[in-house]
Design brief:
Elements lengths: L4 H45 L28 H29 L18 E4 L3 E5 L8 E6 L3 E4 L9 E5 L5 E5 L3 E2 L12 E5 L3 E5 L7 E6 L3 E7 L3 E5 L5 E5 L3 E5 L9 H8 L12 E2 L2 E2 L1 H10 L9 H4 L4 E3 L20 E6 L2 E11 L4 E4 L8 E4 L4 H4 L2 E6 L17
Antiparallel strand pairs: 1-4, 1-7, 2-3, 4-5, 5-6, 8-11, 8-14, 9-10, 11-12, 12-13, 15-16, 17-22, 18-19, 18-22, 19-20, 20-21
């Protein structure tokens, strides 16, 4: 079979085109390599002569050029900052903790040469380990609430505990007897032992937070007005206090009163008593409550009294016998109560509308003829104008002045105006 000359010419032309393309690519590669070598040579000359600028591109270098890489140095402020943090931790946490533990180990927290420590509480005492706990009239969660006990308050167990009791029958420091849930009490009463501490503080704000550290930290628990805590370290605006669970916490000095050990708190005036009571204005009503989470009239009087050095009982029945009895004067013509005879801080007792022999409500006289009351008919603590509520005034049966002295407060206008 004869070959086709046209096909042979086509294959020859294709081979020639391929060969020309290969040579062209080879020449382009040679020119590119030559240009790269020239650029590298210029860069090497400029680098060695010190004329290289920061903005110049860095091409590939064929020659062996060695660059020195500078190591990153530690910033000069790191060491002073670390030293400051260490000193803060040492002053506010480590040193007080070590000192307190050594003092308890050797039995000499006051540094008086190792004298014997006399403790107040024994095996029959318990201390409240929560912010507040209910005091019931029977060992049942559905029983009536007599009152409440606050954090670090010590009670005496009246019946020997059996070990598995859900409730304990206890007596508070003011003599109130009731049942408390065992889980809210701690057996170790060292947090309330004066001999193991250097000072005592009383919470006079409506509530204070106890934190895990002096400057910052987590919330350990809350302490309500009237709570007494003991501490051993006094810092810059803070106290370190002992807690019933064996831990320690920090409380800000604002809203507290420090009392030296062995001394009692100086009683405040009637106006101070009324101002402390006004902290609970608009707080939710809770029968038998003592805290900002819920409170009644007798609870307001107890908390305000503790904040002002007055040892008032915690129940309404006992408060009506405390302090100086006042005569409830009435106008002979209108039979209206002479409110101008009362002073700020006086306690007013009102009989039950359904039982004339029973006192069911208490009010604290404030300024401008008003009375702070927590009434079961209202959901919160309110101010009542005595001159404008004749029905309430008709139930007024007794008045008491818990603060001694005629200058306990300011006379209240009888017309309800300033």
């Amino acid at each position: 079979m004869k070959s086709d000359p046209f096909r042979k010419d086509s294959r020859r032309l294709a081979s020639l085109r391929i060969e020309r393309r290969r040579r062209r690519l080879q020449r382009m590669g040679e020119r590119r390599d030559a240009a790269r070598r020239r650029k590298s040579q210029r860069f090497r000359e400029r680098f060695l002569s010190g004329r290289l600028k920061n903005g110049d591109d860095l091409p590939l270098i064929d020659a062996d050029v060695y660059l020195r890489v500078e190591r990153k140095r530690v910033p000069p402020w790191i060491l002073p900052m670390a030293a400051t943090i260490f000193l803060v931790v040492l002053v506010f946490w480590l040193a007080p903790t070590v000192a307190a533990r050594l003092g308890r180990l050797f039995g000499d927290p006051d540094g008086d040469g190792g004298t014997e420590i006399s403790l107040l509480y024994g095996d029959r005492h318990r201390v409240v380990a929560t912010t507040a706990t209910d005091l019931f009239d029977a060992p049942d969660l559905k029983a009536g609430r007599i009152s409440q006990l606050v954090l670090n308050e010590v009670v005496r167990v009246l019946d020997p505990p059996s070990g598995d009791d859900a409730y304990l029958r206890v007596r508070a420091a003011d003599g109130t007897v009731g049942y408390v849930r065992t889980s809210t009490l701690a057996e170790d009463c060292r947090s309330a032992e004066p001999a193991l501490h250097r000072f005592r503080i009383v919470i006079v704000d409506r509530m204070k937070r106890i934190m895990s550290h002096a400057s910052s930290g987590t919330l350990l628990m809350e302490a309500m007005m009237g709570t007494e805590l003991y501490g051993d370290v006094r810092g810059d605006g803070v106290y370190r206090v002992s807690l019933p669970d064996g831990r320690t916490g920090w409380v800000g000095q604002n809203g507290t009163v420090e009392i030296p050990l062995g001394q009692v708190m100086a009683p405040g005036t009637g106006r101070d008593f009324a101002i402390s009571a006004m902290n609970f204005h608009n707080v939710t009503f809770l029968e038998g409550g003592l805290t900002q989470r819920g409170i009644d009239g007798s609870g307001i009087a107890w908390a305000a009294g503790r904040a002002n050095g007055l040892a008032l009982p915690r129940t309404l029945e006992a408060q009506k016998f405390h302090g100086t009895a006042l005569v409830v004067e009435r106008d002979p013509d209108t039979d209206r109560v002479r409110y101008d005879r009362f002073l700020e801080g006086d306690l007013l007792f009102f009989r039950d509308p359904l039982d004339n022999e029973k006192v069911s409500e208490i009010g604290i006289v404030t300024a401008y003829g008003q009375c702070l009351m927590a009434r079961p008919q209202r959901s919160s603590v309110r101010l009542v104008n005595l001159a404008e509520d004749p029905l309430l005034a008709s139930r007024l049966v007794e008045a008491r002045r818990p603060v001694q002295g005629t200058s306990a407060g300011t006379p209240v206008p009888s017309d309800g105006t300033g």
